[in-house]
Amino acid sequence: MQRKKHNLEHSRVDNGRATTTPTHTEKVAGGAQDGSGLQDTHVEHSDVDRLPYLRAVIRETLRLHTVVPLVPNKAKEMVEIHGHTVPKGCTVLVNIWAVHHDAAVWPEPDSFMPERFLPPLRRDQETGFLGTTVFDLIPFSAGRRVCLGLPLATRMVHAMLGSLMHRFEWTLTPEAKENGVDMSEKLGVTLSMATPLQAIAKEYV
């Protein structure tokens, strides 16, 4: 895959460099929607509804960096799809990565833009994770074959990431600040970073 670099100066993917900005982390760590902030050092599931930017960041991360890019299914009977005959018993791979990077649905699909899930775009109202009526965002697959861990994952990821961002100040290592973060992905059953990310956490006083 194309090698991309990540630093903390910009908020788009430009010239092959995937970048973000401190604003993203500040917004996630900043607290509740009304600006009052969270009073505790950890985020409970009950807090998530007051953290729209956290929800948007997680949705955008799952869209941009699809954990399971290809989901296999088997044709129960012979079908024809767009002029192509799929024999019974044939293994069919659903390209979730391509769904999440469709420029007709997601403007600037290679850019990290959590705002696409916030007003005025408000995609979070029309795009869920279940894949039952809308199929724009299906990181957990869709329909009857949806991942059984979806309810637990969505609860735990929001609470865990929210707590980590709320309690610690995160910075890159000196080497990463100088050279950028390698955002290349290693293809397998799941997608992972080719070079593991290293960061420095400093607890807020």
UniProtKB/TrEMBL annotation:
Query: Could you tell me which Gene3D superfamilies the record lists for this protein?
Result: Cytochrome P450
- Where along this sequence does the record place binding of heme? C147
Q: Any idea which GO molecular function terms this record carries?
A: heme binding; iron ion binding; monooxygenase activity; oxidoreductase activity, acting on paired donors, with incorporation or reduction of molecular oxygen
Q: Check the record and name the PROSITE patterns matching this protein.
A: CYTOCHROME_P450
Q: Name one Pfam family in it.
A: p450
Q: Which UniProt keywords apply?
A: Heme, Iron, Metal-binding, Monooxygenase, Oxidoreductase
**InterPro entries hit by this protein:** Cyt_P450, Cyt_P450_CS, Cyt_P450_E_grp-I, Cyt_P450_sf
Cofactor names from the entry are: heme
- Keyword field contains S-adenosyl-L-methionine: no
Report residue spans for region: Disordered.
1-44
Q: What family does the database annotate? A: Belongs to the cytochrome P450 family.
Question: What is this protein's name?
Answer: Uncharacterized protein
